Amino acid sequence: MKTNQEYAEIASLEDFKLEKERLLLKAELIETRLRYNFEKIRNVFSVTSMVFSFAKEFIIPKISDFFGNLFNKAED
User: Fold this and answer.
1) How far, in Å, CA of 23 to CA of 35, rounded?
2) Report field, pTM of the whole predicted structure over 0.90
């Protein structure tokens, strides 16, 4: 019969209960990490985020250049 080295230290019912609790907590931690990563990915690809990024990168500099040129012409 093949023995499982990973659980060789379980010798009593108390050890079994502790290992069960440890595995449940580990599963909960993994699930939380997955949810967090999914939210990060969703935020990166959200339409609102893309609009703000586009505005910040292209529209706002164009507007500031326009007003800068307008003020420079007004001063001359």
Assistant:
1) 18
2) no
Distance CA 46, CA 72 (A): 38
37, two tokens: 């990563």
Q: Which of 44, 64, 67, 45 has its CA nearest to residue 55?
A: 64
Which pair of tokens denotes residue 48?
A: 């609102």
| Both tokens assigned to 70 | 């307008």
Tell me the pLDDT tens digit for each residue of 9-21. 888 999 999 999 9
From residue 5, how far is each of 19, 20, 43, 72 by CA, in Å? Answer: 14, 16, 42, 78
